[in-house]
Amino acid sequence: MKTSQQVYEDAKSLFENTEIIDLFKNLGTVHIVGSYAANLMWDPDIDIVVITDTPQESAIKAINDLARKEKFQKLEFGDFKNHPKKNRPESFIVNARKEWKGEKWEIETWFVTELDDQLEIVEKLKNLNNKDREAIIEKKKQRFLSGNSKHDLSSWEIYQDFI
Q: Which terminus of the chain has fewer Cβ atoms in its 10 Å neighbourhood, N or C?
């Protein structure tokens, strides 16, 4: 079983391999959020937000550009503006999936017009003491070992006990 730091290093090399951040910089202001930004990774997933005046058009361009780069095995487009879902922004998402370093990775990228409080939460998480950081990683590990997914118990729900 990989450690949190190993998962973080794998994520970093995935960014380098796919050049996804450079591609998204052409579409708006890119913010890496969530567990990668806070260096609290356990699962092979990364959360990105792209701030743009044209979320739908940017998401469509992103999925087309990603398909042309041929760096990902599977790409998905989600429209939560016209098809709202509880606990999801009313906007657009592109999910890119790839096997990398023995894991099935998912990069979730939201295209929105403004950022909510995610950056503030990341800063709070970065400033946690080591005991709390280790407790978060342990909760994520237990989620994994129990067979639950991030959809059953999200990382954001885990973080609420610590921020």
A: N
